[in-house]
Amino acid sequence: QICNQHNAETPNLEQVFHRMAQTEPNLDHDVSWFLLPSYWAKMVVAFISFLCFANSYDGDFVFDDSEAIINNKDLRAETPLGDLWHHDFWGSKLSSNTSHKSYRPLTVLTFRINYLFAGGFYPVGFHVINIILHCTISVLMVDVFSILLGGLQFSNKGRRLNLAPKTSLLAALLFAVHPVHTECVAGIVGRADLLCALFFLLSFLGYCKAFRENKEGHNFSIFWVVVSVILGAIAMLCKEQGITILGLNAVFDALVINKLNVLELIQKLLRKDKSLENAGVLRKGLLFRITLLMSGGASILYIRWRIMGTGPPAFTEVDNPASFADSLFVRAINYNYYYSLNAWLLLCPWWLCFDWSMGCIPLIKSVSDWRIIALAALWFCLIGLICQALCSEDSHKRRILTLGLGFLIIPFLPASNLFFRVGFVIAERVIYLPSIGYCILFTYGFSLLSKQAKKKKILAVAVLGILLINVLRCALRSSQWRSEEQLFRSALSVCPLNAKVHYNVGKNLADKGNQSAAIKYYREAVRLNPKYVHAMNNLGNILKERNELQEAEELLSLAVQIQPDFAAAWMNLGIVQNSLRRFEEAEQSYWTAIKHRKKYPDCYYNLGRLYADLNRHIDALNAWRNATVLKPEHSLAWNNMIILLDNTGNLAQAEAVGREALELIPNDHSLMFSLANVLGKSQKYKESEALFLKAIKANPNAASYHGNLAVLYHRWGNLDLAKKHYEVSLKLDPMAPGTKENYNLLRRKLEQLQKKGG
């Protein structure tokens, strides 16, 4: 039911308010909205936030999840826990020049716990934790918004009072159902933003607890201020934005606890007014608390800088084109345009994309570009709000607008390019915390409209409509994040100029075996970004497999020309040159790849194949041995060693290598097959038979397995079993080389035996 009454559970609240509360305007007074007891309000918020993202629970690992989770060795039990504190979010050493410097060890620790409890990389557990985190954060928002919108007041018994139950519920619902949060919740990598937000809010609520025994601002708890700083540090260990809560706590202290008039304070500072001493700043301990917050924040940042070791990460122009512009004007105007787009995503979160880089947003290079209107509109609105926040005679209005702007802007600062270059143009995940400020401003605007509106219920129904649309949008967007195919294709209509979008669609198609369609998208990616070396490499790979070697060589040669240290492209170029029988060039390409990537087992494997083709058997064996040292589970390298030693008559050595390989990869049926062949030639029939049968059990449809087992039985004199497996082999592959001839020989032998027996 929509009503305008005060909370029925607390009819005598005014009797227990402090004198300060009695003079404070009530934001809920003119708002037509649901009034629920605190417990039920939180239950409603939790349920609706769960409803928005529930369909993402059984989604796959998508996009960045592969690098941050599946390929991240820090999640595995064999990696010491201590390594998490020296590695970045992606598992690379922070001291490395290639590290992104994203230091989030606590987030990685939660991934590791997920992995250990699940017993492997099963995405359901990861997704469920993300959904639970968002629901928890949304519930905490009810308390946070009640403080930000209604003020911090306590009863005589020290219990915090909710002076804005209706508007705090509305703001929490707006936050819970905002579609821009989908990336954080449905994308597992968004765990960093969720954990950061959780401790960010706990730090704020902890800071508020410092004033529970506060009487007219004289007393506060140093313990809770310190706890707030510690929780801020934990938030930063989940994601870098977390440190900004310390600045917001200082703003909250000044505006809500000390009720400072910022404009009046600035004027007094400029005039060096002696009455500043009587402003209550020193008396209420504000400077002491701010000093505590600042010193805590500075210590945290210093420790993080020491751990990070080297300078900032080295991003490329495609990651953030504006930051590489030579002109300061172009950089400034594009940064401001990005801010306006982030603001638009908060206002109208309909066009969402997993990646906004690589030409998705062309640079503004002159004032004649019509997009200048967007950033002009942004600053018009911001300046208007700032003026109201500073100059309004209504202290309640000043407080809410300043807090709204503070929560909107301050958490966004690390992503603003103002202090350091960031590795993205727009990232929906970084708006998770700033959306708190948006919800404050939206709710306050709704309360002002309600105050002026004659038909308040129509306005309330309109807001309900917005909430419902957002719930549906969240559900739709969550379903798109369930698989890479849906996610990547959803971006084609939003960012058709983004080369990375076309690249990812092509890669997804190639992984599914649809090479013809993949070629189309890879070509479009290269057309949109002629320097996109990864698209060239993947396209060259497909063309190589389709035996279109000339174009493949051209693409791969161009890729290594653009990026000379691109090891994968050098290796693939070597494979193409080997196929073209230009062996010297191929060998040079392989060694260049190894020079740029010292630990490159696949390249050693391909180098071994080249040496085998050239009958350089010792070099081939050495190359394959290097591959297995770098990657002990490299089945192809082990197999090739066994086969080469077998073919050259080194049966004892082949047997030793085969046994070594099976100890490392005991369930690899191809290794069982190769070793079984060697043992058969060494007349170790019983052991050979056992391995053949084990290989067939693992892969019963391999014609060669049955065929070679038949040969073993043929040699062994077990002719009936030989006949049986020859027939199975021919049934699976009628054109199997040599099998038909061997089968015919066996049949003739059986016929001769029957004649003799007859």
Automatic annotation (TrEMBL):
Assigned EC number: 2.4.1.109
Protein family membership: Belongs to the TMTC family.
Ranges for the TPR repeats: 499-532, 533-566, 601-634, 703-736
MF-aspect GO terms: dolichyl-phosphate-mannose-protein mannosyltransferase activity
GO biological process, one term: endoplasmic reticulum unfolded protein response
Keyword terms, alphabetized: Endoplasmic reticulum, Membrane, Repeat, TPR repeat, Transferase, Transmembrane, Transmembrane helix
Catalytic class of the enzyme: transferase
Pfam families attached to this UniProt entry: TMTC_DUF1736, TPR_16, TPR_19
GO terms for cellular component: endoplasmic reticulum; membrane
Organism field: Podilymbus podiceps (Pied-billed grebe)
Protein name stated in the entry: dolichyl-phosphate-mannose--protein mannosyltransferase
Keyword Nucleotidyltransferase: no
InterPro entries, alphabetized: O-mannosyl-transferase_TMTC, TMTC_DUF1736, TPR-like_helical_dom_sf, TPR_rpt
Cellular compartments annotated: Endoplasmic reticulum; Membrane
Residue ranges of every copy of the DUF1736 domain listed in the record: 311-383
Membrane topology: Multi-pass membrane protein
Transmembrane segments: 39-57, 131-151, 163-182, 188-208, 220-237, 243-266, 286-305, 372-391, 403-424, 430-449, 458-476
Gene3D superfamilies: Tetratricopeptide repeat domain (1.25.40.10)
Pathway where this protein functions: Protein modification; protein glycosylation
Coiled coil location: none
